[in-house]
């Protein structure tokens, strides 16, 4: 969730959705994202909408769960009035920030508010992110007892020097502990790692991959470090204090990750995501990539229902003010036209292993497919069967492939 919000059309104070949002709703899943915008330390590379205690004077973390519950109840009314609220929730994801900086009781209260508002579909996937140093064994047991099914640990690296560059505070030795505690509590485990940090070597990245595989998580997310403008890291690079990440090195690191994970029985299902079996894919993230419906709770959170997208005011104080007034916390919204929705399908579904139906492409995009196959970027057999599926080289150049499919 980038910290800079887009512009858009005015959002109604009562949250009313247009009638078009209900079209086809029965065929779409409903998810809920809860943004917890608090962190102990702001990492130098982070561009997310997060705040340390010193940055949010006048806003209490202890008030946040109540504010989020008010938005959840508000959301229930909006979706009911729009005719799209009868579906139970398929996935819930608590992200941040560091959700587990809040007491488990607060996380449980918000989760139970979601359940009371919509109910949960059978087998609902309910995830929270956590830093390895933000939970202990008792916390993880309490999360499982509250209804969470999955925890995603921000491991980032197994190498202390790389963690220091990223300004991550946990000890790498903590990761095996929290993974074991999570498993003992009955939670599925995902590990998130970042590659291509300034100065990171191939040997250091290999150490991280080995450490990930040693824990045998059901799911792994491996993201290339992106230097976002306005971050501390961007300023350090501009001043020459740390080297700029190398595109070539990041490509090599991705190849290393793909080979390591594939060799250990993991399958890629999205460019940056791998799982041991389809049942361990992040269904919440897949809902984003396949344009399902979700309500985003919290400051700066984004929502999407039936081609209507909106985003909440960014600052926790502004969010609290709107919630206190009983009005929508949305700053602005947009209603996507058919062409925009088609373009977004190309952008998103090209990245997933199931691929993009070729029928979604326009004439120019279809003409580009043969060249992409010849260059080894798109799987030829899948294309003959009517789907655009990226090869491993294609995944490295996913953005370029998408541009050609869109005729850019």
UniProtKB/TrEMBL annotation:
Keyword set includes Transmembrane helix: no
Location in the cell: Cytoplasm
Entries under Gene3D superfamilies matching the protein: Aldolase class I
Family matches, as SMART domains: Elp3 (SM00729)
Domain of life: Bacteria
Similarity annotation: Belongs to the anaerobic coproporphyrinogen-III oxidase family. HemW subfamily.
Protein name: Heme chaperone HemW
Organism (species): Schumannella soli
